[in-house]
Amino acid sequence: MAALLPTILTIWIFVQCYIFIQGKVSVHINTGIVKLIRVFSSNWDEQFLKDFWVYGPGRITGFFVAIIGVCFIGAFLASVAGRTIWHYVERNLMRIPLVRQVYPYIKQVTDFFLAKKSLEFSKVVAFEYPRKDTWSVGLVTGTGLKKVSLARATDFLTVFVPTSPTPFTGYVIMVPRTETIELEMSIEEALRFVISGGVITPAEHLAFEASRKEQEKQTES
Fold it and tell me: Are 22 and 109 in the same domain?
């Protein structure tokens, strides 16, 4: 299942996209093609054109036209003029009472999954969480919210605390910068530490433990 499920889901997503485009977009494009042919040549039988372009082999044409249209629109919106026009459209959308309550959140989700944005971590820190004298490892994603920093008159860090053994889920908290300890370990080492439940420790920790045990042996002898 672990090997087959990603492939099956990928195929299912593409099939559903094809069905959606054919059922909601392509059919209208093909209907437009039929009307266009009828305008330039009235000799064609309308039912025959529909049987070929809308219901028959020609219906795939609308699918390819829709895909090409999306590519052209994407290329246009990537240009300076396109971005300017789209920003103007978005500003007007944000003025509509109901739309402005929904659109920004949908845009955040789509930007996260489709745009070239990723969750980036800058460093690894340790801090007391979830209670005093209990230390957790966290990944710094940025600074804290400005209003919180101003209210407390101190700098905050936004930290993602991954859960074990699945570090893709966790908690996002803000911690005063002075209450964190920056760890000399990479992001990969921190994730391995979390995934393994603390079994796989960083190289420097292993070296420290080996040195400590060696000192204990020398002391006993």
Answer: yes
Range of the domain at 90: 4-114
**Does residue 146 contact residue 114 with C-beta atoms inside 8 Å?**
no
Is the CB of residue 201 less than 8 Å from the CB of residue 184?
Answer: no
Whole-number percent of the chain with pLDDT over 90: 23
In whole angstroms, give the CA distance from residue 169 to residue 49. Answer: 54
Tens-digit pLDDT profile for residues 40-58: 877 777 787 888 888 888 8
Residues 133 and 97 in one domain: no
User: Pick from 114, 146, 161: which residue ends a domain?
Assistant: 114
Distance between CA 93 and CA 104 in Å, rounded?
10
Tell which residue, 6, 58, 8, 70, has the closest CA to residue 31.
58
Q: What total number of domains does the chain contain?
A: 2
Same domain, yes or no, for 83 and 140? Answer: no
Q: Indicate the DSSP class of residue 129.
A: -
> Does residue 202 have a cis bond before it (omega within 30 degrees)?
no
What's the order of all strands across the beta sheet hosting 170-176?
170-176, 156-162, 135-143, 123-128, 180-182
What are the CA-CA distances from residue 193 to residues 106, 201, 205, 213 (Å)? 34, 6, 11, 21
Report the CATH number that the domain containing residue 199 is assigned in CATH: 2.30.30
At position 209, the amino acid (one-letter code) is E
What would the pLDDT profile of 78-109 be if each residue is shown by its tens digit? 898 998 998 898 889 888 888 888 888 888 77
* Tens-place pLDDT, residues 147-189: 888 888 899 999 999 988 887 788 899 999 999 999 888 888 8
